[in-house]
Amino acid sequence: MDELARLAGITVRTLRFYRERKLIPPPRREGRIAWYDDRHLARLRTITALLERGHTLNGIAELAEAFDHGRDVGDLLGMDTPTEETPVRLTPEELADHFSGEVTPENLAAALDLGYVGVDGEEIVHISRRLLEVSSALVREGIPLAEVLRTGAEVRTHADTLADLFADLILRHAPEEAVHRLRPLARSVVDAELSLALDRRLRKRD
């Protein structure tokens, strides 16, 4: 326990507290000896990263319980409403393969914070195949995953604003169910405007 606490950068008292709160799984026991391994260390580092990002211990405990016992991933990721995005189930090893060793506790905490990933039993579920593929492609191009996630957070803020604009436009003139039916039009407008904006940006650089 002393060695695990030292490697995780916490006190033994804090480690005992985390154990009591069931934030980490119990150690493997051989008689009176308790053995901790790299999974416990990774969990502790992830807890530290989540705390630094403003998560509460209650929220972290909820994630830990989902990881250890399995829970409806739709509820965990907030996907209880219809969506056009396709979730992707991955093992932790498969997720690491997508991002070339950049699945650090800090990056995992950021992805959890964004709602990009959740846990269902022993699997990790990414909320969107398209976002997973784009993120991994950017990392392959040499862009750090931390930067990709920070940009994703900014894009989400703008996307929420665009969604509000489109929904308000439709609801002023049509019933609520029309929002879902007409959402491909919103995507087309955003895609075209982004393409034109990139053209303008590139012309400025020339």
UniProtKB/TrEMBL annotation:
Keywords: DNA-binding. SUPFAM superfamilies: Putative DNA-binding domain (SSF46955). It holds the Pfam family MerR_1. Coiled coil: none annotated. InterPro entries: DNA-bd_dom_put_sf, MerR-type_HTH_dom, MerR_fam. Residues 1-66 form the HTH merR-type domain. The keyword DNA-binding applies. Gene3D superfamilies: 1.10.1660.10. PANTHER family: HTH MERR-TYPE DOMAIN-CONTAINING PROTEIN, REDOX-CYCLING DRUG-SENSING TRANSCRIPTIONAL ACTIVATOR SOXR. This is MerR family transcriptional regulator. It comes from Streptomyces edwardsiae.
